[in-house]
Design brief:
heterodimer; A: about 350 residues; alpha+beta; two-stranded antiparallel sheet; 11 helices; 10 strands; B: about 180 residues; mainly alpha; two-stranded antiparallel ribbon; 8 helices; 2 strands; about 55% helix; extended
Chain lengths: ~350, ~180
Amino acid sequence: MPNVDHLLKQTCEWLKGTGSNSDIVVSSRIRLARNLTDLPFSHWASKKQARESLDRLSEATGSADMLKNSLVIRMAEIDDVDKQFLLERHLISREHIVEPEFKSVIIGDKEVINIMINEEDHLRIQILQSGFNLQECWRIASRLDDTLQRKTKFAFSPEWGYFTACPTNTGTGLRASVMLHLPALVMTKQISRVLQAITKLGMTARGLYGEGTEAEGNFFQISNQITLGSAEEDIIDNLERIIRQVIGHEENARRTLMKQNREMLQDKIWRANGTLRSAHIINTKETMSLLSMVRLGVDMGLIEDFDRRAVNELFILTQPAHLQKIEGRLLSSAQRDVKRAYLIRRRLEGR
Amino acid sequence: MNCDECGKNKATVHLTEIVNEQITKLNLCEACAKKKGSDAEQHFGIADLLAALSDVEAPSTASGASSSAAPKSRCSVCGMTYEDFKRIGRLGCAQCYATFHASLLPLLKRIHGSNQHLGKSPTPTASSKDLRASDRIREELEAAKQELQRAIKKEEFEEAATLRDKVKFLEKKLSEKKIREGMK
């Protein structure tokens, strides 16, 4: 039986810290929602119907060339730590963890492609890339969508586009989102103004782990809200323009900090670096905020002895389920804090 | 104006909550708004939003005709009622979109500012994939105009009205697109 352990040994594509604007844009994501024409949406389906949609979509995805050698995981067959582990890697949603019966996730090579079956919609195609690269995500997503719709029929009307369980996704079923690291906008207290402007332009901003989560580590996920009435390319184009402006603001804020508050900035970055290299007990929240400062130091060329990818990896490896997978056993919260501090010290020393 | 929560700081955030169709307004300072924010997001889900929106937007179908046309408001394929949808915030199946068409029309318009899909479709004609977006819209526009003429001839006025809106919408899209492509 395939298990999630081998994911632990690889760095997923989106954490690589490469691609354009990767000093500010961590990753880009495209999600497409699709549903079968003749079965109720997942939340409204009987067990028999849920089993049928799972079987049919497993078959359709199983025979797709683009998904060759993918890892297929039935949610009912893995334990809670594994579920949390997949969530921490952005491979599944919170919704996919509740009532795991008849749900599955298909994880492609390097975790670029992943597909959830029987989440809110029958099919959720997700493409992740490192850096500011929505165009490439869209190309892959659309190609995969073309492949799958040759194998099965998706619910669609020319008037309202693709039908989705929630009317907020009707139309293109497309959610384009970009994960930004915006520490300077937070430090200069401009962030709420920027986020307000984004909301007015029909986009939404959320934290690292999506809906309802706090913006820990100064990470913000910005995505389109409107899915009906604009073609996919236009939705993406529009989001890109807005993101480019946000990037510009963050760059300005970084320059201003360097010019006007250089000592304060360096102090924060080097103290964070020092704490992470010395701490023997550290919780997730403190880790996130200190790593954010270290990442800023790396991005601004102040810290030179390790790279962005190493910092990116630490953000994920220090999450609770990742620590327990690395250790190979369940750990209490207090044990995790010790293990986390140990892992960070070793990694920052380059071991 | 001072914050309703702590009474000390100046209120800069004005929050409108809809709980059980009762609207309450809160004036909060930034710190209290932050505290409140996480709670608000929890219970102010999409279901509440939809319930509030659809009540405002579709009073005639909801109250006026519902008692006499009760069977119609249940989806024949999955059995979902419009009440279910308002409670859950999600539709039951693809057919629900046809069953609740009249109520969804204003709702989708409210959510997306539009009632007409543009973009990908499951069976693209071989040529349309390579066309520029403006050409694709132009094609759609021509088709809609022809359908409109046909509907008028047949005196299918309800359909004609929908088609007229579609033509208007596409014309607007096309001119926007042209301006953009001109700029590129």
